[in-house]
Amino acid sequence: MRAQFVLSEIGVGLRRNLTMTFAVVVSVALSLALFGGSLLMSDQVTTMKGYWYDKVNVSVFLCNKSDAESDPNCAKGAVTEDQKKEILGDLDKMSVVEKVTYESQDEAYKHYKEQFGDSPLAASLTPDQLQESYRIKLKDPEKYQVVATAFNGRDGVQSVQDQKGILDNLFKLLNGMNWAARAVMALMLVVALMLIVNTVRVSAFSRRRETGIMRLVGASGFYIQAPFIMEAAVAGLIGGTVACAFLVIARYFLIDHGLALADQLTLVNFIGWDAVLTKLPLILATSLLMPALAAFFALRKYLKV
Predict the structure, then answer these.
(1) Considering only CA atoms, which of 236, 223, 224 is closest in space to residue 284?
(2) Subunit composition (predicted)?
(3) φ and ψ at 284, to 5 degrees?
(4) What are phi and psi of 271, to 5 degrees?
(5) pLDDT reading at 5 higher than 60
(6) What's the rounded Cα separation, in Å, for the pair 101 and 88?
(7) Sequence ranges of the domains in the chain
(8) pTM
(9) Which of 7, 112, 225, 298 has the most crowded CB, counting CB atoms within 10 A?
């Protein structure tokens, strides 16, 4: 096959269908940018889970005098010293527990003032209104139910709370947003494929005379189809390159500079550049293969001479 002829035909095809080629580039760029973004969002959620699940605690709150008057779980009165020792001893025996930290009412009051000192309620709150608690670090955050089953409803225990439940709601929201992005990505991919098929169809129709002559002089089917397939591949590759550039720029300005979320949201462990760079070859490969395959199958129907 003469490479010069194929390259010249690619240039002719792209110039003849410049508007549709531009539409293909834009749709491929948008769809693959969403594709890459959804992959990075999945990595971000996984990173955040690993970071935060390692830090969450299970809290066993103990009954105080105020709870004894208002909370059915503390109907037998405030927790006694013997009950506290028994609860601590049972926690130390549990294989799922890694570490237990005791928090007194004064410590709980201090932490509350640090976090909510500006609220109107903080001014009227006293240490004896807050609960003592045991803060439990689990070896496996998924084993919360083991602790909850052992201590819920026990004498002296007001409640057992799992911080992981709060994080799960956040991660469900992030996963929902990620699936929404994937749905839009799928729609954009369908649009891109339709545009590619139509572009190839118009290109093949506009050059039906040349392809007919090539067929008559004995040119092979692949020799005839190659320029059309490569036109689609080149347009897709341009779109993929734009998508890669968009992801790199977005990561640079959103996290490192510009909005600088890494500096403003210090509690969030953002994904690094390695996560972004490892996605770029996949995006480029998809941008090259997807249009080429779409063009190949479209030509089987529209390039019959």
Answers:
(1) 236
(2) Forms a membrane-associated complex with FtsE.
(3) -65, -40
(4) -65, 150
(5) no
(6) 10
(7) 3-52+169-303, 57-140
(8) 0.66
(9) 298
